[in-house]
Design a protein that fits this description.
Elements lengths: L39 E2 L2 E2 L3 H16 L6 E3 L1 E3 L7 H8 E8 L2 E8 L6 E8 L4 E10 L5 E3 L16 E7 L3 H4 L6 E8 L5 H10 L3 E7 L7 E5 L9 H24 L1
Antiparallel strand pairs: 1-2, 3-5, 4-13, 5-6, 6-11, 7-10, 7-12, 8-11, 9-10, 12-13
Helix pairs in contact: 1-5
Length: 261
C-alpha cells in the first residue's frame, strides 16, 4: 500500500488486510475513488473490460499454441589455436532459433564481456532451406554480406552436411562483425513442409550445423566454433501460455469475489 493511501470508513489502509499490495512494477497504483473494490494492479483494473480481454487473448493463445519462443544454442570450439580463446567463445556466443511462415530466423549474439568478434557465419545443411530468400540484418555497427572468407569453416570437424549459406562481415570485418553487446539476424526461406521442429531436431542431432569464425581476441588469435545440441528442455507454447493465464487469473479472481460480496 502506498504510504499516502487514505483512510476509508475508519480503516487504516496502510495496515489493513483488506487488500494485499505487492506491486510488480512502479506503475501499480491505488485509485482512491471512494470504492475499496475499485483499484488497479500492474496497470490493469481487476474485473475491468481490459483485464477480461487480456484473459481471453491469453486463453486463445494457450489453446492454439500461438506464443512465439526461441531455442538458444551455444557453441563449441573446434580449433583451439590459442589457450583461453575457446573458453571465451563458448561462454559468450549464442544463436536463438525460431521459424514461422516458411522462414527460419537465427539471431546471433555476443554477450561479452571479453573482446572477440564474429566475422563469418556458415550453415551446413542441404535439406532444410530454400536460399532464394536470404536476409542479413545486424544491430547498429554490424554489417554482413553473402559469401565468406574463407569459404569453409576452419578446424578439424565432421563436414558431412552440405554448406548451404555462408556470410561474412563487410569490407572491414573487425569493425562490421558482431562485437560484445551486438547481434546479427539471418533469415532463410524453408523448403516446403519444413517446420521449426525439423530445424531444432536437426541442430540437436547435428545433421544441421552452424559455424562461426571469431577473431579479435585480446591475444590477436582467431577460432572456429560449431553449434552444440540444446539439452535444456524448453516449455511448449501452450505450457507457457497456461502459466501466464494462471498468473492473470490469480489477479482477476479475487477482484471478482470482492465485487460479488
Amino acid at each position: 500500500m502506498p504510504p499516502d493511501a487514505p483512510k476509508k470508513g475508519g480503516i487504516d489502509m496502510k495496515s489493513a488486510d483488506v487488500i494485499k499490495w505487492k506491486p510488480i512494477r512502479e506503475k501499480s497504483t491505488y485509485v482512491p475513488d471512494g470504492n475499496l473494490r475499485n483499484w488497479t494492479y500492474n496497470g490493469l483494473k481487476k474485473g475491468s473490460t481490459t483485464m477480461k480481454k487480456v484473459l481471453a487473448v491469453t486463453l486463445a493463445a494457450a489453446l492454439t499454441g500461438t506464443f512465439a519462443y526461441a531455442d538458444t544454442f551455444g557453441f563449441e570450439c573446434v580449433t583451439n589455436n590459442l589457450p583461453g580463446n575457446g573458453d571465451i567463445g563458448e561462454a559468450q556466443l549464442f544463436v536463438d532459433v525460431t521459424a514461422s511462415g516458411g522462414i527460419a530466423t537465427f539471431v546471433f549474439t555476443n554477450t561479452g564481456p571479453e573482446t572477440c568478434v564474429i566475422t563469418d557465419v556458415y550453415f551446413y545443411d542441404g535439406v532444410l532451406f530454400d536460399t532464394s530468400y536470404l536476409s542479413l540484418e545486424g544491430s547498429a555497427g554490424v554489417e554482413f554480406e553473402e559469401g565468406a572468407k574463407p569459404s569453409f569453416l576452419p578446424g578439424d570437424w565432421n563436414r558431412d552436411p552440405t554448406l548451404t549459406v555462408f556470410a561474412s562481415a563487410g569490407s572491414s570485418p573487425m569493425a562490421d562483425g558482431v562485437d560484445p553487446g551486438e547481434s546479427l539476424t539471418i533469415q532463410i526461406g524453408l523448403l516446403a513442409g519444413i517446420t521449426e521442429a525439423d530445424i531444432l531436431a536437426a541442430l540437436n542431432n547435428r545433421t544441421f550445423l552452424i559455424g562461426v569464425k571469431v577473431q579479435g581476441f585480446d591475444n590477436e588469435g582467431s577460432e572456429a566454433f560449431i553449434t552444440l545440441p540444446n539439452t535444456t528442455p524448453v516449455p511448449e507454447p501452450c505450457t507457457l501460455a497456461l502459466m501466464g493465464l494462471g498468473g492473470l487469473l490469480a489477479l482477476g479472481v479475487p477482484a471478482l469475489r470482492r465485487r460479488q460480496r
